[in-house]
Amino acid sequence: MLRVVVLISGGGSNLAALLGECDAPGFPAEVVAVGADRDAVGLDHARARGIPAFVVPFAAHPDRESWGDALVAAVAVHEPDLVVLSGLMRLLPPRAVDAFAPRLINTHPAYLPEFPGAHGVRDALAAGVTETGASVILVDTGVDTGAILAQERVPVLPDDDEATLHDRIKPVERRLLADVVRGIADGTIALDPIAASSHAQPDPDLTT
Q: Which residues bind (6R)-10-formyltetrahydrofolate (predicted)?
């Protein structure tokens, strides 16, 4: 059984979906703790199930590096096999990435390497593309530059705004995350940046 720690900043909708997957008979992973950089509402998903929840407040530390060190220490208590960034809205400092890698993954609401960063859905709309997507990646020290483990296209409809487009991306993002966690647990997905990097290419068929 793969031991997973999930890190969040907000409502934890992807976390809730992953917890639901973990409830399914035969799912080969369990969420053993949920952490956040603030007193996030999403921590209630863990508390309601009796899963340990912890907060490492960013504001309580003098800089990002010391916050990252404290986060690593808090996560390590739970001895995870995998750490999932699920809406954690802070970049991990390099020391923290190095401490977790390659057992560190993230979801992103775009077809990376297109539209990295915090506003992937908004940026896709601003670019006028007809397709965007969702991705699950290994985390490295860049901004959404890690090797791609899974991704899928999502069409952009003519009347889409940021909310409607994001609402259609989220179910794909959640399904991909569950598939990747399952694949890591059963050995069909290797946490190997070199093997995964062959997927990290722009889609030549993207149209505007």
A: 64, 89-92, 106
- Would you say 1 is a known binding-site residue? no
Tell me the one-letter amino acid at 146: G
Domains of the chain in start order, with CATH, are 2-186 (3.40.50.170)
DSSP state of 90: S
**78 catalytic residue (yes or no):** no
Strand extents, DSSP E, the chain: 2-8, 29-36, 53-55, 82-85, 104-108, 131-138, 148-155
85 is in an annotated binding site: no
Annotated active-site residue in 108, 119, 166, 199: 108
99-153 confidence digits (pLDDT tens): 999 999 999 999 999 999 999 999 999 999 999 999 999 999 999 999 999 999 9
